Amino acid sequence: VPERALGLCDLELVPARALKEGAMTEGLRLMKNNEWNQLARLFCKALEFALSLDLDPQRLRNELGMKGMKHFTEFASLLHLATDSRLANLTHPAARRLRLLVRNGTQRAVKTTQKSGFHSLRDFDATSPRFRQDSMSYL
Question: pTM to 2 decimals?
Fold first, then answer.
């Protein structure tokens, strides 16, 4: 049985060597219910933090000069990770809280994508750094 690690920053589910050996699925299968509950608590902390931020990609890019689409994509990726079916079936209070956070985060993400200009990559030259950065995150 590979050692299991749960980290808030990178949400590592199994050791890196197991990923290289293709044991990711097996590692997830080996996690016990209390470890899934712990993972749900970690996701709650991560989503609470992410939801406290203004992740509007256009504002981040235009007003702060940051890679807005990248930050938004990271948020969407976190939402995706938090919807793992093995987390959805837990009855632990953290798992119930996680489902609420995912629902709120998903609604926020959808509203962001519906804002004018979110899908306007064609407004930028295809060879510009901004187009390259945003188009990679957009995909």
Answer: 0.68
